[in-house]
Amino acid sequence: RVDMKASPSAMLEDPESVQVALMDLITQLLERQIRWREASLVIRALEAAQRNVRLVRFGQKMEEMVSELPNWDKQFLEEHPEYAGDDGPADGKADSAPQSGT
User: Fold this and answer.
1) Do 12 and 23 touch, CB atoms closer than 8 A?
2) Which of 21, 54, 56, 90 is disulfide-compatible with 9, CB 3.0–4.6 A?
3) What share of the chain is helix, strand, coil (3-state, %, to 5)?
4) Residue 99 pLDDT greater than 90, yes or no
5) Residue 98, SS3?
């Protein structure tokens, strides 16, 4: 779901955070908050994170890191002002699709 927030244990920046995520997954399994199939997928992702953690260095070049996400909707409307109105097509023409049953 779009409104779901990532758990802090999903921030896999170092070996310790991968271990915390694994412990969190074990707890969820024991408390039956997650199904076995989902857990196996998470374990595979944790394995990949463990392999990758040796290669990444977060925070070393802060000026080059993405610090905010662009507002794609706003950018699109700035580039295509014809779509900015709520009144339908920008050319003022009504939808010419044939009506059925009339």
Assistant:
1) no
2) 21
3) 50, 0, 50
4) no
5) coil
Q: Crossing angle for the helix pair 36-52 and 15-30, nearest 10 degrees?
A: 170
Residue 92: pLDDT over 50: no
Count of CB atoms situated within 10 Å of the CB of 17: 16
Residue 93: strand, helix, or coil? coil
**pTM score of the predicted model:** 0.47
pLDDT over 80 (residue 26): yes
Do residues 28 and 40 touch, judged by C-beta distance below 8 A?
no
Which residues, 6 or more positions from 59, have their beta carbon under 8 angstroms from its beta carbon? 65
CA dist 32 and 30 (Å) reads: 5
- Where do we find the tokens 């969820």? 28
Both tokens of residue 63? Answer: 């000026």
